[in-house]
Amino acid sequence: MLTLDRETKSALHYDDLNSSIKDTFATIDQFELQAVELCRVMHDERMYRVAGYKNFEQYCQGELHVYGGYRRINQLLGASKVIVAAGELGPQIKNERQARPLLRLAKEPEKLIAAIKLALSSNPNPSESDFAVAANTIAPMPKGKNKFHQEPLVPKNAITISSPEHPRYGESGVIVADAPNNSQQIVTFADGERLLVNNADLDDAIVSQSTEPTYPKEYTEAIAALKEQHKLELERLSQELRIGLQAEVSARAEAQVSEQIQSLHFLYKQQKEQNIQLQQRLDEMEGLRKLDIENQQLQQRIQELEHALIERPSQQWGNTMTQQATKVLNKQVKQALEKTIDLRTLAADPPKENATECLRLMGMALKQIATAMNNTQALEAAALILGTSPTQSAIAIRTEQLQLLPQAVREIRQVLARIEFTWQEFWAVAEKYEVIKPDYWAELTTSETDLITQARKNSEQLTVNT
Prior knowledge:
It is a single chain. This protein has 16 helices and 4 strands. With 466 residues, it is mainly α. α13 (405-416) crosses α15 (437-443).
């Protein structure tokens, strides 16, 4: 009695466990078919590209390799295709294994439905083998093929569909027949289906077996003659193009040489004008040097008279000798002032050449006379000419600045004499003499100031473009 109870309990335990196992596998199959619909969305919408995958196969191998990878997902996609094609009988297919032998009939829904009905008629709960027998009964496979796939009789080349837009994307097949044209191949897949596939949809392993079309002999000779004529024409055009390019290069070189010669002539002319101006300035400076010598002599005479006055402090200047000495001194000072500058005469008849420089040099001479004689009028005249305040310190500073003027003009003209100069090169020199800019600017010719202005505009335009 105890043994009977144990057997009864074991039977009950087996039934529950067996039922649970079957339910679990059925649930797994159901969820697999549900997951494949999500995979179809991922494939059709190409959402795998968001993660950086180039194609659906890479996505499956990268993300779903623990679930069978691309091979398993491809099998599930095929099962989904069979279930959709079966219509109302689709729910009778419980898993991918049952759908696998029916995949070759998915393109012919009538045969597919007939195979499913045949399997159901023989077994209410058909297995994979029941569906395989029914499929082979409705659509017998060619001789030499097994129940699930067929091998090519004379395999020529194995290929893989590489275009994501093709419905057979990622599947492999073989070419067992000659290509019907230059752009397509006849491909037989593992499920026995034969499709006409474009060469562009195949991977790099396929090499088109097509050849150029053949023509009659007279056409072939005509085509060869046309090709030879075309080749000769291309050579002639290439030669003409080469000659034209050489002529263009020569013309450009001649134009550049001519432009350089003109530029050199222009620089020579400028240099000649500068030499003339320099010679004139040297003449003017020689005259001023002589005037400075006379001023020094006059200052020495004044010092001698002051020394004589200091040695005889008690002596009265009312005697005849003293009055005569005073008259001589006043006369010499007046002559020196007349030789130095006469503003009214300059206003009526200014110097013909380099009047500005002459006035500046005269102002500097007046400054020396005013310093030596403490003459207020001479000091004011010097300040007026030099363009500053009538004070000793202001005139002294202005004099030091003007002494830099010849050097400033000389260095600036050295920069302008270059064939091509930039604003930065000019400014590197002009910045040192910025305090006397109005003075050296007045010394430059119109062409020289135009060159400086154009260089500044070019620099500003280059800055804006950058």
